[in-house]
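Attaching the record inline, Q. Sequence:
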Amino acid sequence: MPEERTFTLSLEQVDGYEYSACFDWSEVEPITIDEPEPLGARRGPNASRLVGAAVGHCLSASLRFCLEKAKQEVRRIDTSVVGTMRRNESGRWRIGRLDARLVVDVATPQPERLQRCLELFEEYCVVTGSVRKGIEVSVTVADPEGRELYRREPDGA
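Structure, as predicted:
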Protein backbone atom coordinates (compact mmCIF):
# COMPACT_ATOMS: atom_id res chain seq x y z
CA MET A 1 0.00 0.00 0.00
CA PRO A 2 1.51 3.36 -1.01
CA GLU A 3 2.35 5.87 1.69
CA GLU A 4 0.16 8.98 1.69
CA ARG A 5 0.22 12.36 3.38
CA THR A 6 -2.53 14.94 3.30
CA PHE A 7 -2.73 18.70 3.66
CA THR A 8 -5.74 20.93 4.10
CA LEU A 9 -6.58 24.44 3.04
CA SER A 10 -9.78 26.39 2.75
CA LEU A 11 -10.90 29.20 0.51
CA GLU A 12 -13.34 31.79 1.76
CA GLN A 13 -14.94 34.15 -0.73
CA VAL A 14 -14.25 37.76 0.18
CA ASP A 15 -15.84 39.55 -2.78
CA GLY A 16 -16.46 38.49 -6.36
CA TYR A 17 -13.40 36.55 -7.50
CA GLU A 18 -11.33 37.45 -4.44
CA TYR A 19 -10.74 34.65 -1.94
CA SER A 20 -8.81 34.27 1.28
CA ALA A 21 -6.82 31.04 1.40
CA CYS A 22 -6.23 29.62 4.87
CA PHE A 23 -3.79 26.78 5.46
CA ASP A 24 -3.56 23.97 7.99
CA TRP A 25 -0.57 25.62 9.68
CA SER A 26 -1.97 27.95 12.34
CA GLU A 27 1.14 30.15 12.31
CA VAL A 28 0.74 30.96 8.59
CA GLU A 29 -1.34 34.01 7.72
CA PRO A 30 -4.04 33.64 5.06
CA ILE A 31 -3.21 34.86 1.57
CA THR A 32 -5.45 36.67 -0.88
CA ILE A 33 -6.09 35.09 -4.28
CA ASP A 34 -7.83 37.10 -6.98
CA GLU A 35 -8.23 37.29 -10.73
CA PRO A 36 -6.98 40.13 -12.92
CA GLU A 37 -9.37 42.57 -14.52
CA PRO A 38 -12.02 42.39 -15.93
CA LEU A 39 -13.09 39.55 -13.62
CA GLY A 40 -11.33 40.51 -10.42
CA ALA A 41 -9.46 43.46 -8.95
CA ARG A 42 -5.96 41.89 -8.84
CA ARG A 43 -5.84 42.09 -5.03
CA GLY A 44 -3.60 39.02 -4.95
CA PRO A 45 -2.00 36.51 -7.27
CA ASN A 46 -4.28 34.33 -9.35
CA ALA A 47 -4.12 30.54 -9.33
CA SER A 48 -1.80 30.33 -12.36
CA ARG A 49 0.75 32.56 -10.66
CA LEU A 50 0.53 30.46 -7.51
CA VAL A 51 1.31 27.34 -9.57
CA GLY A 52 4.40 29.12 -10.96
CA ALA A 53 5.42 30.23 -7.47
CA ALA A 54 4.97 26.69 -6.15
CA VAL A 55 7.20 25.25 -8.88
CA GLY A 56 9.86 27.93 -8.35
CA HIS A 57 9.87 27.55 -4.60
CA CYS A 58 9.95 23.77 -4.69
CA LEU A 59 12.91 23.74 -7.11
CA SER A 60 14.77 26.31 -4.99
CA ALA A 61 14.16 24.42 -1.76
CA SER A 62 15.16 21.09 -3.32
CA LEU A 63 18.41 22.51 -4.68
CA ARG A 64 19.22 24.22 -1.38
CA PHE A 65 18.52 21.04 0.59
CA CYS A 66 20.83 18.98 -1.61
CA LEU A 67 23.63 21.55 -1.52
CA GLU A 68 23.43 21.84 2.27
CA LYS A 69 23.53 18.04 2.60
CA ALA A 70 26.62 18.11 0.35
CA LYS A 71 28.23 20.59 2.75
CA GLN A 72 28.12 23.45 0.25
CA GLU A 73 27.69 26.91 1.79
CA VAL A 74 24.75 28.42 -0.08
CA ARG A 75 24.83 32.19 0.03
CA ARG A 76 21.54 32.53 -1.84
CA ILE A 77 19.34 31.13 -4.54
CA ASP A 78 17.25 33.58 -6.58
CA THR A 79 14.58 32.10 -8.80
CA SER A 80 12.40 33.48 -11.56
CA VAL A 81 9.57 31.70 -13.35
CA VAL A 82 8.01 32.67 -16.68
CA GLY A 83 4.60 31.15 -17.33
CA THR A 84 3.20 30.81 -20.83
CA MET A 85 -0.56 30.59 -21.23
CA ARG A 86 -1.95 28.74 -24.26
CA ARG A 87 -5.36 27.76 -25.53
CA ASN A 88 -6.04 24.04 -25.60
CA GLU A 89 -7.87 22.18 -28.39
CA SER A 90 -11.19 23.33 -26.90
CA GLY A 91 -10.09 26.96 -26.88
CA ARG A 92 -9.70 27.09 -23.07
CA TRP A 93 -6.74 28.86 -21.48
CA ARG A 94 -4.23 26.57 -19.79
CA ILE A 95 -0.72 26.95 -18.39
CA GLY A 96 1.21 25.56 -21.33
CA ARG A 97 4.73 26.01 -20.07
CA LEU A 98 6.76 27.17 -17.09
CA ASP A 99 10.39 28.23 -17.49
CA ALA A 100 12.25 28.35 -14.19
CA ARG A 101 15.68 29.96 -13.83
CA LEU A 102 17.62 29.54 -10.60
CA VAL A 103 20.73 31.56 -9.86
CA VAL A 104 22.73 29.83 -7.15
CA ASP A 105 25.58 31.46 -5.25
CA VAL A 106 27.77 28.94 -3.41
CA ALA A 107 30.62 30.35 -1.28
CA THR A 108 33.36 27.89 -2.29
CA PRO A 109 31.81 25.45 -4.74
CA GLN A 110 33.22 21.96 -4.97
CA PRO A 111 32.45 21.12 -8.62
CA GLU A 112 31.80 17.40 -8.09
CA ARG A 113 29.38 18.00 -5.21
CA LEU A 114 27.64 20.82 -7.05
CA GLN A 115 27.28 18.65 -10.17
CA ARG A 116 25.84 15.76 -8.14
CA CYS A 117 23.18 18.06 -6.68
CA LEU A 118 22.34 19.45 -10.12
CA GLU A 119 21.77 15.88 -11.31
CA LEU A 120 19.50 15.03 -8.34
CA PHE A 121 17.58 18.03 -7.06
CA GLU A 122 14.64 17.99 -9.50
CA GLU A 123 13.78 14.41 -8.54
CA TYR A 124 12.99 15.61 -5.01
CA CYS A 125 10.77 18.50 -6.05
CA VAL A 126 7.25 17.29 -5.30
CA VAL A 127 5.47 20.11 -7.12
CA THR A 128 7.52 20.10 -10.34
CA GLY A 129 7.28 16.31 -10.58
CA SER A 130 3.50 16.55 -10.21
CA VAL A 131 2.99 19.54 -12.53
CA ARG A 132 5.09 17.98 -15.31
CA LYS A 133 2.27 15.50 -15.88
CA GLY A 134 0.35 18.25 -17.67
CA ILE A 135 2.59 21.31 -18.09
CA GLU A 136 5.92 21.62 -19.88
CA VAL A 137 8.59 22.73 -17.40
CA SER A 138 12.13 23.78 -18.27
CA VAL A 139 14.75 24.38 -15.60
CA THR A 140 18.01 26.32 -15.87
CA VAL A 141 20.55 26.85 -13.10
CA ALA A 142 23.23 29.53 -13.47
CA ASP A 143 25.91 31.01 -11.24
CA PRO A 144 25.84 34.68 -10.19
CA GLU A 145 27.92 35.61 -13.26
CA GLY A 146 25.27 34.09 -15.54
CA ARG A 147 27.22 30.96 -16.51
CA GLU A 148 24.81 28.13 -17.13
CA LEU A 149 25.46 25.17 -14.84
CA TYR A 150 22.44 23.03 -15.69
CA ARG A 151 19.56 22.90 -18.15
CA ARG A 152 16.62 20.58 -18.56
CA GLU A 153 14.08 21.09 -21.31
CA PRO A 154 10.54 19.65 -21.17
CA ASP A 155 11.41 16.65 -23.34
CA GLY A 156 14.24 15.69 -20.98
CA ALA A 157 16.98 16.93 -23.32
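The first strand starts at residue 9 and ends at 15. The radius of gyration is 18 Å.

More tomorrow.
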